[in-house]
Design a protein that fits this description.
six-stranded mixed beta sheet; two-stranded antiparallel ribbon; disordered N terminus; alpha/beta; 3 helices; Double Stranded RNA Binding Domain
Length: 173
């Protein structure tokens, strides 16, 4: 019984994480890349404050991995987001019920809490500058509160970009 509860808890924790879909050109030797800069015309679909947060976070994480920001880069970084707003899926459940003598009746309902959320599909592309070809791409689907504070937005972008870049460069087989 204890084993089943541990297994259930582990599966629940793993299923709650953000998933990152990664695609890349398997013919590319990613170890040859060591410099980057941003695509000259990024049209992210986000506001300038969010763009600046993303650039700052991406710079920090790429430089931790040994990449150098350069005026003559080997890779261009491009990013964009698609957003939609929906009601929070968090609810408080209430219900009444009764039964006896093999007869049962129940009524339940949910009261939404937490306000609206922004569903965001965030995409980060890496483009080979010399060939002008997309060589690596990651896509994350996640959500953030519609009225998130600047600190919450920074934490949100840090967590998804860190998760994205944990898959770069791809492991060679």
């Amino acid at each position: 019984m204890k084993f089943l509860s541990i297994l259930f808890l582990s599966l629940f924790i793993v299923s709650c994480g953000v998933t990152v879909a990664v695609d890349y050109d398997s013919q590319i030797n990613f170890s040859k890349y060591n410099s980057y800069n941003y695509y000259p015309t990024i049209e992210s679909g986000l506001n300038e404050l969010d763009n600046n947060r993303i650039v700052k976070i991406t710079d920090s994480l790429l430089q931790q991995r040994g990449f150098v920001k350069s005026e003559t880069p080997q890779l261009y970084v491009n990013f964009f987001a698609r957003e939609s707003v929906s009601k929070s899926r968090n609810t408080i459940g209430i219900g009444i019920g009764g039964g006896g003598g093999n007869v049962g009746v129940g009524v339940s309902g949910g009261i939404p809490i937490g306000g609206r959320v922004i569903n965001q599909q965030f995409t980060l592309d890496l483009i080979d500058v010399e060939k002008d070809d997309l060589v690596w791409q990651a896509v994350v689907d996640d959500e953030i509160k519609e009225r998130a504070t600047p600190h919450q937005k920074e934490s949100y972008y840090y967590s998804i970009i860190k998760k994205i870049l944990s898959n770069f460069p791809p492991k060679t087989k």
